[in-house]
Design brief:
alpha/beta; seven-stranded mixed β-sheet; 9 helices; binds S-adenosylmethionine; SAM_O-MeTrfase
Amino acid sequence: MTKENTLTCAPMAPLLDHLFNEASAAARFDFTQIPEEETTRMMHSKTEYLNLYSLLKHMWLPVSRETGKLLYMLARSTKATSVVEFGMSFGLSTLYLAAALRDNGGGKVITSEFEPTKVAKAREHFVQAGVSDLVEIRVGDALNTLAVDLPETIDLLILDGAKVLYDDILHLLESRFHPGTMIIADNASYNQNYLTHVRSAENGYLSVPFSDDVELSVRLR
Ligand SMILES: C[S@@+](CC[C@H](N)C(=O)[O-])C[C@H]1O[C@@H](n2cnc3c(N)ncnc32)[C@H](O)[C@@H]1O
C-alpha cells in the first residue's frame, strides 16, 4: 500500500507531535529579566541580534503548527524543489518543508542557523524523520552563509531568523526568485522596512498579512 503523504504518516507525524510537545514543555526565556527597552533595542539592532539569540540559545521558538501546515501546503501547491530557510532552530519548520519536498518528488531545503547546539539537535530530528537527504544546513550567520553557493532559482523562502535582517536576507536572495516564488515571513511586523518593500507593487511582489503574524508574499516578475 502506498502512503498518502509524508506529513501525516509515520515517522513524520508522530515526531512532529512529540517535538511540539517538547517545545511547549521547555523553559521559556523570562524577558522580565531584562528591561523592556533593552529587548526592543536588541530586536531592532543590526549589531545586537547575536546577543539576543545567544540569550535565546536554548529556546525552541518554533513556528506554530498552523504555520507549519501552511509551509507544507505552499511548497506542495507550488511544486517547490528549491527552498531556502533563514532561521532553523531545532528544525520544526524545516521538517514541514522537507516533507513537502519528499512528496513533490525531491529537492533541497537550504537552511541556516548559527547556534551549534541547535544544529546538532536539528540534525537528529532530520534523521529521525528520514529527510536528511533533503536538507542542507548552513552553520553560521545567514548573512554570510546565504550569500554564497545559492541555487539557480528559489521556489520558496521562509524568513524566521533575526527579524531585523529580513530585508537584508531578502535582498541577498531576490535575484534568484522567479514569478511565483513564495516568501513567508514569520513575525514580520517587527520589520517595517521589510513589510514596506514587499507591500509595494513596484518592487515586484503581491503581499498579504496572514494569521499568526505571518506575511505571505509572492514574486510577480
Ligand atoms: C524563531 S527561531 C526559528 C524557528 C524555526 N524556524 C522552527 O520553526 O523551528 C529563529 C532561529 O534563527 C536563528 N538565527 C537568528 N538570526 C540568525 C542569523 N543571522 N543567522 C543564522 N541563524 C540565525 C536563531 O538562533 C534561532 O534559533
